[in-house]
Amino acid sequence: MPAAFDSIRFRDALEIVIEFAVIWAFVFVIFRFLRGTRGAGVIKGFFLLTIGLALLVRVLGDATDGFERLRFLFDRVFNLLAILLIVVFQPEIRAAFGRIGRAKLFRRPTPAVDGLAAEIAEAAAFLSKNRFGALIVIERRIGIGDLLTGGVELDAKASASLIQSIFWPNSPLHDLALVVRGGRLAAAGVQLPLADGGELPSAFGARHRAALGISEESDALVVVVSEETGQVRLAEGGALSASVPLDALEAALESRLSRTVPSATVAAPSATTDGAEDAAQRSERGEP
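Above: the chain sequence. Below: its structure as tokens.
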């Protein structure tokens, strides 16, 4: 009997150790993928509180074979909180799955981009000098084909003149995004998901929010031209760059397209830096 009793206690202890290990591994993986999002702290608190309550209810229930009403309420409340968690933190969860999609296991070969950077840089320079807003999404390993259904299919060779005509004022397609896939212009007039308004200074508009939003959910490289200032910025890996000089834009595109996108945390340029750049441009134009 003592040997059998010791064997049962050992199995129970081993089961507890395995349960704790599985729970810890699960929580660690979730925290790692949600790291850098605004809801990460709230989700962390939710999981710690839930796990603590679950262990407490189980220990009390197993020890006393009671607390049935408490366990019943906990099960119902936990199911409700799980649903609320998915609804409230849907953007953060999508961003986390986007990071999973950027893992090497799910990547496909990078499409050819010979000459693409030069064409886009030339078009962006023209649009910038004329203060024509533009939003160009260059698809890479993670496909965004689900977003193209609402746009206008093009399947055309990438050329600076065609890109310029798409974003020419009063063009039916100039307000939305142009998607480049496999080195070709796949579709125009594409509606993109917007990043949360709190992630960017108020000086940035819908184009910059859309550029940041699609870069959070995929590994796409996004070129955004401001209609107000003519500044050109690049969005990649959930981060928006500072203004890129026109003479350095082609080299910047070549460099970024030739490497793997990093899993960056969401970052936006500071309002102070942007304000200084905008003030300098207004001064050059003789505006107050």
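The beta strands are 134-138, 152-157, 177-181, 184-190, 221-225, 232-236, 239-240.
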